[in-house]
Specification:
Elements (H helix, E strand, L loop, with lengths): L18 E5 L6 H10 L3 E6 L3 H6 L7 E3 L5 H9 L6 H19 L5 E5 L4 H11 L2 E5 L5 H9 L9 H13 L2 E4 L2 H8 L8 E3 L12 E2 L7 E5 L8 H8 L6 E5 L13 E4 L7 H5 L4 E4 L8 H9 L2 E5 L4 H4 L9 E4 L4 H15 L5 E2 L11 H17 L1
Parallel strand pairs: 1-2, 1-4, 2-3, 4-5, 5-6, 6-7, 9-10, 9-12, 10-11, 12-13, 13-14
Antiparallel strand pairs: 8-15
Helix pairs in contact: 1-14, 3-4, 4-5, 9-13
Length: 391
């Protein structure tokens, strides 16, 4: 097991405000990071295709936002139009290259450049050579070669394009630090010879205002919830095998549908993707949240469900291992190996049994709630970053 990189909590850090560039395609977790780092007093610029009305919705100050979509609207439009055609990979590559160029051209002076992996081949070079910036690459999943191996072993799953592999490896080589969200992601880099000193692991956060504790739902029918893409990558075929061993149990899915057909049983309910602000009402309907992923960096939906009071059943490739030490109840999170439908069914059965006597408001986190906020995440990130800047 790999621990967090060490920081001396007894040593006071000097107050240093940084110029921070954050580059991404979509929102991911880095929009929340941008907002919170700005709140801590740093000068933050957020480069993305996320429209200003949406960044404002998530609390990012307008002066932090650099909207790049108008500069690459053609490449973005072609990528969207070819989503289900044989040109999909080609247009995705052109979009990634165009976004990278746009970031590099728009980039303002910065001390730190934080870029989502795969989009920053050129912009990292500009940040480093022009401004002398420290380069942090945010990798939301396992090492790209580990991800490629996992997906290649899943018949019918969407594979990692070759261009994406090459862009990821280029970003890793440019990085001073690779930032990951979970233990198993850190280990995937170490297994491939990446230096421990260049890894940073920080547990992400959740908006507790959106995900307060919820009342225990009716006992009948017992309900398990899965939030996210209905896909092979998220192990939904394995989840179906496990669920079908649990007669009388309802399975509620909230999210998009990818490469696994939806079941037709009466106790299955599918709800199309909803805005994050609406998710709490669905967590309130279930006793247990499940994530059977074969490949996942950090299941932030698990943190949302935990904050909402649900018990968790997940694989060891979801970040559940990182959440477990937060809790006094050793059975609040049950971990199983990926691709093991029998163990998944047993864990779900046990978790539902634990819920039978629960009544009233479900506050699973209790005194550690403030440790899983986005503010706490940014403070951990800042502490680690300042130590690295001073090293």
């Amino acid at each position: 097991m790999v621990a967090h990189p060490a920081t001396d909590q007894g040593e006071a850090l000097p107050q240093r405000k940084l110029r921070i560039a954050i580059a991404t395609s979509g929102r991911f977790h880095v929009l929340d990071l941008a907002r919170e780092l700005a709140e801590l007093g740093h000068s933050v610029r957020f480069y993305s295709i996320v429209p200003p009305w949406r960044t404002r919705k998530f609390g990012l100050p307008a002066h932090c936002n650099i909207w790049l979509l108008p500069r690459i609207s053609l490449q973005y439009g072609l990528m969207r139009a070819s989503h289900k055609t044989r040109w999909k990979e080609h247009t995705e590559q052109r979009f990634a290259e165009a976004l990278d160029r746009a970031i590099a051209i728009a980039l303002q002076p910065c001390d730190v450049f934080i870029g989502m992996s795969g989009f920053c081949n050129r912009s990292t070079q500009v940040a480093k050579q022009k401004y002398g910036a420290k380069i942090i690459i945010e990798r939301g999943s396992t090492h790209i070669l580990s991800q490629q191996e996992i997906l290649a072993a899943i018949p019918g799953a969407q594979q990692v394009p070759n261009f994406a592999v090459q862009r990821e490896l280029h970003d890793y080589a440019q990085a001073d630090i690779i930032s990951v969200l979970s233990q198993h992601c850190a280990e995937s880099f170490l297994e491939r010879g990446f230096p421990y000193s260049k890894l940073m692991r920080t547990l992400p956060g959740v908006d507790l205002r959106m995900f307060p504790p919820t009342p225990a739902p009716p006992a009948e029918p017992p309900t398990i919830l899965m939030a996210g893409s209905w896909s092979m990558q998220k192990g939904c075929d394995v989840l179906l095998q496990a669920w079908r061993q649990l007669p009388g149990v309802k399975l509620l899915h909230v999210g998009s549908v990818a490469d696994v057909p939806l079941p037709r049983e009466s106790l299955f309910e599918h709800v199309a993707t909803v805005d994050q602000s609406q998710l709490s009402q669905f967590y309130a309907r279930a006793q247990v949240c499940v994530l059977a992923s074969r490949q996942e960096g950090m299941g932030i939906v698990l943190l949302q469900a935990l904050a909402s009071g649900l018990r968790i059943v997940c694989t060891d490739r979801t970040g559940g291992t990182d959440m477990k030490p937060l809790l006094n109840d050793p059975y609040a999170i049950r971990l199983v190996h990926a691709d093991d439908a029998m163990s998944l069914a047993e864990a779900l059965r046990a978790a539902l049994a634990d819920c039978q006597s629960e009544t009233g408001l479900r506050d699973r986190l209790g005194p550690v709630r403030e440790q899983v906020t986005w503010t706490a995440y940014a403070q951990r990130y800042e502490t680690e970053l300042l130590h690295r800047m001073l090293a």
